[in-house]
């Protein structure tokens, strides 16, 4: 079979790899039917995630069909159509028992495309399969479902819920990539008064308006701080979400937030950011970080089935499963291509 293999910073290839096989009784093998590329994969290729070793198959977001299960897997049989979560859960350790699956100490957490081979391949091994997959109803299409593997629960849990978005809040979101757009979509569930999105690409700001942003700010042409203060009587945002993963965007969030406000960092960072405690300590600002736990995936899936989440505009480019190299080129050059999420399907 073939997979997208990491060959070190800046190096990737769609190449022959050993067939996926059961390695543990709790494993399942899926035929990958739809898969996408995450901004985190670009961070890996940029050398920002040194735990990923050369030869690892990337990817942690897929929809597939069960083709084989280990003897310890309950509730799944060949032919089941499933969402493969970006987080694997042993279900036994202290963190899993608390629902903090991202911090699993029993061999799970974020391991797909990170510590073990991921899902950007024709077939994939899914560890802890009965706790790390979700059966999909027929009415949910592959393109919508694959967005629930990572970006929707990540933005919802690490951005909206960690940031304690409440009715009437002013929410500033820095970054209008897929994570930022998913934050817009899920923040709207809590009826904020204003959602302001800041980005350097006009095409992504237009997408933010489609997803529900009230105000957009183009970096370099408008002053984000002036815009936020003008909408809040000079106070600043109740919640500022960082959805990029650079020192500059994190530091911008700390300037946008009002006294007593919350900064929710969602982005993956590969370099240190300055924490200006000399300014922040006196303003009662709360800063949260987090890796998604995916405890919200079933609820988000229910909302998707009920028509409460409109994901129709998120996927902008579609490729065949053997077109990974072209798909990465398009996704990595989003400023020019206008790409939000790319999906590769059989």
Automatic annotation (TrEMBL):
InterPro entries associated with the record: ADH-like_C (IPR013149), ADH-like_N (IPR013154), ADH_Zn_CS (IPR002328), ER (IPR020843), GroES-like_sf (IPR011032), NAD(P)-bd_dom_sf (IPR036291)
Top-rank taxon: Bacteria
One Pfam family of this chain: ADH_N
Record keyword Metal-binding present: yes
Keywords: Metal-binding, Oxidoreductase, Zinc
Molecular functions (GO terms): oxidoreductase activity; zinc ion binding
Cofactors: Zn(2+)
Enoyl reductase (ER) domain mapped to chain residues: 7-344
UniProt record similarity statement: Belongs to the zinc-containing alcohol dehydrogenase family.
Name of the featured protein: Alcohol dehydrogenase
Organism of origin: Micromonospora coriariae
Taxonomy of the source species: Bacteria, Bacillati, Actinomycetota, Actinomycetes, Micromonosporales
């Amino acid at each position: 079979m073939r997979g997208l293999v990491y060959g070190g910073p800046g190096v990737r290839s769609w190449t022959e790899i050993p067939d996926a096989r059961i390695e543990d009784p709790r494993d399942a093998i899926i035929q990958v039917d739809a898969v996408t590329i995450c901004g985190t994969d670009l961070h890996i290729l940029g050398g920002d995630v040194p735990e990923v070793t050369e030869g690892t198959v990337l990817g942690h977001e897929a929809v597939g069909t069960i083709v084989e299960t280990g003897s310890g897997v309950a509730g799944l049989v060949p032919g089941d159509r499933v969402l493969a979560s970006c987080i694997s859960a042993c279900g036994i350790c202290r963190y899993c028992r608390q629902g903090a699956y991202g911090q699993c100490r029993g061999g799970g957490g974020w391991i797909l495309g990170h510590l073990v081979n991921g899902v950007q391949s024709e077939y994939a091994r899914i560890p802890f399969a009965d706790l790390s997959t979700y059966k999909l109803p027929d009415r949910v299409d592959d393109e919508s479902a694959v967005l629930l593997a990572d970006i929707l629960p990540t933005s919802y849990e690490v951005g909206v819920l960690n940031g304690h978005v409440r009715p009437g809040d002013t929410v500033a979101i820095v970054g209008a990539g897929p994570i930022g757009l998913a934050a817009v979509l899920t923040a709207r569930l809590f009826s904020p008064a204003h959602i302001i999105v800041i980005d350097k690409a006009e095409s992504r700001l237009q997408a933010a308006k489609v997803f529900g942003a009230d105000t957009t700010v183009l970096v370099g042409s408008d002053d984000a701080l002036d815009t936020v203060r003008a909408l809040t009587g000079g106070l600043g945002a109740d919640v500022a979400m960082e959805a990029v993963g650079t020192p500059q965007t994190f530091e911008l969030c700390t300037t946008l937030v009002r006294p007593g406000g919350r900064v929710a960092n969602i982005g993956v960072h590969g370099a240190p950011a300055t924490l200006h405690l000399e300014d922040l300590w006196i303003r009662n600002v709360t800063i949260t970080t987090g890796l998604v736990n995916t405890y919200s995936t079933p609820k988000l899936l229910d909302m998707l089935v009920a028509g409460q989440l409109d994901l129709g505009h998120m996927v902008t480019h579609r490729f065949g499963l053997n077109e990974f190299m072209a798909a990465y080129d398009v996704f990595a050059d989003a400023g020019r291509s206008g790409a939000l999420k790319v999906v590769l399907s059989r």
